Prior knowledge:
Blueprint: E1 5-9, H1 11-14, H2 18-28, H3 37-52, E2 57-63, E3 68-82, H4 89-97, E4 100-101, E5 108-120
Antiparallel strand pairs: 1-2, 2-3, 3-5, 4-5
Amino acid sequence: MGNEFIIINIRRYLQQGEEGEKLLKQVFSTFSCKKNADVDRFLLQQSIDFTKKNQSVTYIVVSSEHNQIVGYFTITIKPITVNVDRFSNTTKRKIARVSEQNIENGNYSLSAYLIAQIGKNDSVKCTMKK
């Protein structure tokens, strides 16, 4: 991708306090996803609060050429439970290193990254350079 796109963690703006949040909302106002109103709603109304509460973190993707937000994605951590009965001993050991075992049922609990939201800005037309 080279330098065509810049990925920015919105925490960078939020660390600047009210001014950063105001600027972030201004940047978000240029985003539009007509195909999915929930994508718009999340970015404009929830992404900042979720990031402040450490429930998730949103990254905006900005076009270097257009200097405009072309999309975003939000990542959160999701707890998962794994039943290792059918796994090899090697795989069981690997899972045990990064998780906690429930003694009662033998299942393992661990955290995994989840792409919670993803959206593309309809108002910006970008083409990838070869």
